[in-house]
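Run log, item B.
One chain of 450 residues. Sequence copied directly from the ordering sheet:
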Amino acid sequence: MKNYHKISQYLNSFINYERKVFFNYKKNLKLQRVKKLLDELNISFDSLKVIHIAGTKGKGSTATFCASILASSGFKVGLYTSPHIFDFRERIAILKKNKKSITKTLISKKDVVRIVNNFKPTIEKLRFTQEFGKVTFFEVYTAIAFRYFLEKNVDFVVLETGLGGRLDATNIVKSPLISIITHIDYDHMDKLGNRLSQIAYEKAGIIKKKSLVVSSYQRKSALKVIVKKAKKEKTQLFLYKKDFFCKNIKFYKNFSCFDFQFNELKLKNLKISLLGAQQIENAALALAAIYLLKEKKIINKEINYRGGLLFSNIEGRFEIVKKNPLIILDVAHNPTAFAALANNLKLYFPRKKIILIFAVSKDKDIKNMLNKLFCVDKYIFTTFSNPRSVLPQDIKTVSKIKDAILTKDIKDAFKLAIKCYKKNHLILISGSLFLVSDAKNFLRKCKYLN
């Protein structure tokens, strides 16, 4: 396979649970299969210095903050996140410091072609093994990431889990430097469990023996599980709002400011350009994690906390892509994320009425998501290019919003939103990362992006 298009087609031939609505999580995800795959590919990943992140929301932002702080401090950092918006290469990147800021370089098409061609004979042998079941899209991508980071001799790797944590392909890493648990809430309940404690059990599966763990503020049932797991693994646990704190939080039009304290580390007037109240907590988790690595002498350089935060950026997180008309994209896809989204809209645009373009995956709590928003003037229900997408008519039926307008895709939805738009409006596109991906592709083609 000589070109990237053919390689992409080949990779897409593997079973992809990101495109499946319902499947048996415990039966289909197997760490033994991941271990066999990496062993057969001769990928000795134990030498990678890993920061491992799991949670329901905030994983991608926290991972980006961690990688940016390390890169800003002079390290070469591998960043592995999921899913992607335009191209799967977004999942595998290297961050480094340049003179003025940080460069983020995606794995090249040439490197993807070379690595996959090298992998193919081995992968084909393992594709349909009786013992372990089918090798998955995510497992192959994880193997590509590990091989690439080893080749590039990165100083650190920041790994974001895909689904859950305990059975996730990234959890093949047995000795992370530190694990981070972001906010845990109800999502993927058909796979991870109906109770918060069950979901927390899966997320806490990334906690390893005699390591370090940093956790977001959690509800009692989730926290109990995390504390129990940390004690079992004899791991030191540090909690937001108990061991480390953010104070004097201020929100401005283009950035947020706050003070941070963890033991003797006191940082005043830190700035982040990622908008939204929840990003303060995500930044705090990253600051705490990097501080602990410094305190434990795993890191010996001076840490540029301030610069690392300032240059952190991630697409689709309360992202204002155009100011006239005002268009906001947000990958919120569960009730908790929609509550945070509603809070951000109230914080930044309290007098605006919302034209909502909404599409959602089949396993989501549609009614509760939509109930979190306020000041919605127009509901436009649509679909996205993934088989998990709920039909607009079904969204209308479940939500019981009788005056919602139904459209077949983002193109039609956006055209309608523009027709309805007035100066007191904003256009919000949210409900799924897949919808945001479709929207960005469409807006880029018609030159609506800033």
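Observations after the first pass:
- The chain has two domains: 4-310, 319-445.
- The chain has a mean pLDDT of 94.
Flagged for discussion on Thursday.
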